[in-house]
Amino acid sequence: MDRIRGKALAGYIVAKGHDGYQVAFALGELAPDLGNAATSVGTDKDGSLRLLCPNDSAGARSVRMLESIVLYGIH
Fold it and tell me: 13 pairs with which residues across the strands?
């Protein structure tokens, strides 16, 4: 993976759940050579997708019933 530098550091993703819940991540915090924030997508018992952020202390950025992940700010 190429390193994220310059203008690309202004990019971010928004993950949205079926219930309208949304969270955002800066690309820099997800990049392995910068923030290296652990995130993953898995399935719940009912088969729906879930975005997991195991290192977040409160778990508020985990998204259940994940519908979309959109990348912004990269051209």
Answer: 25, 71
4 closest CA partner among 30, 37, 22: 30
pLDDT in tens, 18-48: 999 999 998 888 887 787 778 889 999 999 9
Buried b (16+ CB within 10 A) or exposed e, 30-61: bbeeeeebebeeeeeeeeebebbbeeeeeeeb
Domain ranges of the chain: 6-72
Q: How far apart are CA 28 and CA 16, in angstroms?
A: 19
Single pTM value for the model:
0.82
**Can you read off the two tokens belonging to residue 72?**
């912004």
